[in-house]
Design brief:
The chain contains 13 helices and 18 strands. With 377 residues, the chain is an alpha+beta fold. Helix 9 links the parallel strand 14 and strand 15. Guanosine-5'-diphosphate binds next to strand 2 and strand 10.
Length: 377
Amino acid sequence: MKLYEYQAMSLFKEYGIPVPLFEVIDSPRDAESSAEEIGLPVVLKAQVLVGGRGKAGGIKVAHSLGEVKSLASTMLMSEIRGELVKRLVVAEAVEVERELYLSATLEKYGGNYLFMASPEGGVDIEEVAKGSPEKIVMLEVDPLVGIREYHMRAIARRLDIPPTSLPDLMNILKGLFTIFKSYNCELAEINPLALTNKGNLIALDAKVIIDDNALRVYPHISRLEVEEVSGIEGEARRHGFSYVEMDGDIGIIGNGAGLTMTTMDLIKFYGGRPANFLDIGGGADAERVYKATSLLLKHHAVKVLFVNVLGGITRCDEVAKGLVRAMKESGAGKRLVVRLVGTREEEGRAILTSNGYEYFSSMDEAAKKAIELSKMG
Ligand code: GDP
Ligand code: MN
């Protein structure tokens, strides 16, 4: 999971990496008051997960409060490379003498951390690697040993920073190492790391990617995650459902990852387009099915809801009850196709048919029906 810049910046701050004064806002009025607090000029930064914001108009400098307000209102709710901008960071504008690059990633084979540094920051490191690879220093760091002084001196040499900036650099590297290790990162990157004319080092940008498999282990990371994932996906996660959105018009519910995936493949196989899918897991009762179905129906693109459930510990009657209730409340204008077999199948079927819903025991028949309905006006 990639963190937003403001989340990564907060981590940096917490671990002693200097960052500009900043605040996160979601309205032009808040942008103005933040700018007033921070002091002009400020930099407005679109909070999106896509890279290269600067080039796409996602980074602007404002010199007056009027400018802050007008820039904030154009930037908020605009799109940066297809991603909606819901929040901005208002940050103290830093006077930059040189832009440097610093990052930690995983070394592919040995299980070590790989620290990279380059005096050419602010640009893509891949570009530097192609054009002038000699400018990049790469150092392997054993996670059990930690980052040592000789590593740090080697990095300082390559960055060509004044000796007075060395203590700053050491703190930054130690912070980066600790973040990388304690958050199971795949990447922790500072690009650019600004060197000011006073010789101070400040992280102007922050990119942190956490291994998804580590998220559940740490409650403080899960908290970041919930904050980050918004909308239906965030709600689904908070309820413990796995939910994925696509760009079609058929909503899919299954029980168990295998069946849910198979259901999606089947829809695609017969020429349909999934809008989203959700796995209700094993043993879901009516309440949980209701919750799941309501969530799925919230996605505006869903025209047909296709439910494929194999009742084992999951009871078909419970599934049917949950489905009927959710459809009544939030299924206006949407169609429901159900394939339901297994435990309490008869009872489940009776609930569905008495409420006027189509019911199938063949998965293929059901899938074809769902697709047919999705293609009707
Ligand atoms: P990115 O385009 O998503 O990588 O966004 P960055 O946060 O890295 O900003 C892009 C560029 O904007 C940086 O490389 C800097 O050149 C510039 N920039 C960002 N913040 C500041 C600032 O406070 N002062 C100055 N002078 N430049 C900044
Ligand atoms: Mn950057």
